[in-house]
From TrEMBL:
Domain of life, source organism: Bacteria
The protein's name: 4-hydroxybenzoate 3-monooxygenase
Species the sequence originates in: Roseibium aggregatum
GO molecular function: 4-hydroxybenzoate 3-monooxygenase activity; FAD binding
Enzyme class: oxidoreductase
Amino acid sequence: MRTQVAIIGAGPSGLLLSQLLHLAGIDCVVLERRSADYVLSRIRAGVLEQGMVDMLDKAGVSERMFKEGLPHDGVNMSVGDTRLRIDLKGLTGGKTVMVYGQTEVTKDLMDAHTARDAKVVYEAEDVTPIDFDTDTPRVTYKKDGVTHEIACDFICGCDGYHGVSRASVPQDAITEFEKVYPIGWLGILSYVKPVNHELIYANHDNGFALASMRSHTLSRYYIQVPVDTDINAWPDDAIWDELKIRLGEEAAANMETGPSIEKSIAPLRSFVAEPLRFGRLMLAGDAGHIVPPTGAKGLNLAASDIYYLSNALIEFYGEKSMAGVDAYSQKALARIWKAERFSWWMTMLLHKFPDLGAFNAKMQQTDMDYLASSHAAQVSLAENYVGLPF
Ligand code: APR
Ligand code: PHB
């Protein structure tokens, strides 16, 4: 088999890339290790920057998002019983974010692929990128016991943090930057009314909590826990009780509780691989970088990578020029590092860390006081939260 671009991974990165390339008349094949149902069963982020909303619109997959997504003009920070509202719209000259789950984004992209009978191979085993240091790269995979080979011009590694693409690069060609936090987020999803019409990020003496949502009837909550926590130690009732404590009195009074339909613990990690291009192999999304979820940047960074990468490939086929491909890694990384900085800062500001020390605890408190008192600090938070320009 031959295609122009072989894409490994059918998460948001891979599917958005495939969709944009298709619209530009570029042929591609997506290879995904899991089944479509499995991919859709993963509950992940839920806040889209305007730039990502615009891309989904351009990709022709925005109809349901505009109908069902919830535009948010602001976001709240709560420390003890003080709540600070960051007026995202007012502070950024009119920019907002859209609350719409990654699962829904993925489903819309999958539906668009199905509708045009796109080449997506689910349950592809042993996917292996080969010869990407030459002009004739290939990808092999196994399906139903049969080995297949795809010859292509480029391989796009959109296969997440644990994917095969980054792992296939010779170790001396790649530098990895990593910060592991000693904490995790225990998340629950429950069919209850959101406690507030906007998100609340709370830093309480017991630790961080977040009140988020997927719709007017589906809520998503998180609490900070030690990273090695056994999820069985947290029955639903205990989580609701803890959320009421950490989110403050007003939220506690308004909180509707119910059974969880999903419950999981995710570790917090910052990670960047440099560069993101190795000959004819490019990494995008979680394959190249991870942010802790505190700033809601993971999914949005995947979208900005795909913005640069799709444009680079469209330029290659349209103008027979490698300039965009040559510039991809540098352009993407410049924005990635800024989102890494913001996610790290939000994480350090809002969590309780076991060995923070007295000085750093004072810095954390002062950072919060400064944010509450400074218009400039709030503008900085707001412009990052709604997303820096592509
Ligand atoms: N072969 C084929 N597919 C693979 C392989 C492999 N060896 N390894 C992983 N995959 C698939 C995974 O099963 C997954 O469906 O690649 C896909 C990667 O998807 P994501 O992990 O969702 O990564 P990405 O598309 O970059 O999306 C980034 O996901 O984790 C969140 O915070 C992150 O919201 C951000 C978004
Ligand atoms: C979510 O709704 O899952 C969510 C929202 C905001 C974050 C992280 C996750 O910062």
